[in-house]
Write a structure and sequence with these properties.
30% strand, alpha+beta, elongated, single chain
Length: 212
């Protein structure tokens, strides 16, 4: 059943409860129930003919203890827009149990999903194909495993090693090749002198040069 079927049946049941007070409501509730179930059956048959494909890299590589993005692209051959719900189950190497998303895919278009995951242990494990639920009017829903199984690998975090290497280089090589240069106004050489400023310290005044 789709997400709208049960609320619609409950609404028809509420109308049927008023049948003892208003007798014409009884056949009306029966006709509404039959029409609703017929529409749900028609949607079920329509969804069975829809082909759903999910595009995802066959091998997903993650860096240990670093957040990465995994892209999943959903495509259908339906002639009308469909509501799509995607659920991807992760193996034990990933901190999250699963990830999900919802969207609307139009004919001839691709619906992208981006899942952010973090590898918590090194290794390689099989990656199940994503499960996709499609519905047209919300009365019936079809769930199918789209795509093919893949593999998820969690490798050492080379990016963290590179960042640590850069930090160590900055710490160890800091000041290497630099030389201390006197600031303008410090010193007694002619090329270092300048006019007195309001905020200058009196101890820095070159009195002999000023007298000349």
């Amino acid at each position: 059943p789709g997400p709208r079927l049960v609320p619609a049946l409950l609404a028809i049941a509420a109308v049927a409860l008023l049948a003892p007070l208003v007798p014409p409501l009884a056949p009306l509730a029966g006709l509404l129930a039959l029409a609703l179930l017929g529409a749900a059956a028609g949607e079920t048959l329509y969804l069975r003919r829809v082909a759903v494909t999910a595009e995802r890299p066959p091998v997903v590589a993650l860096s240990l203890d670093d957040e990465d993005e995994i892209d999943v692209r959903i495509r259908t051959d339906a002639a009308r827009p469909l509501e799509v719900a995607v659920r991807q189950a992760w193996p034990g190497l990933v901190g999250h149990g699963s990830a999900s998303g919802r969207g609307r895919v139009r004919p001839g278009e691709v619906l992208p999903f981006t899942f952010r995951v973090r590898g918590v242990a090194r290794g390689a494990e099989p990656l199940e194909p994503p499960w996709v639920a499609i519905t047209a009017w919300g009365l019936a829903e079809r769930c199918v495993a789209a795509g093919v199984p893949g593999e998820l690998r969690v490798t050492p975090n080379l990016r963290a090693v590179r960042r640590l290497h850069d930090q160590l280089n900055q710490f160890a090589l800091r000041g290497l090749g630099n030389r201390v240069s006197p600031r303008l106004g410090k010193g007694r050489e002619c090329d270092r002198l300048r006019d007195y400023g309001h905020d200058d310290d009196c101890r820095d005044i070159a009195w002999k040069a000023s007298a000349r």
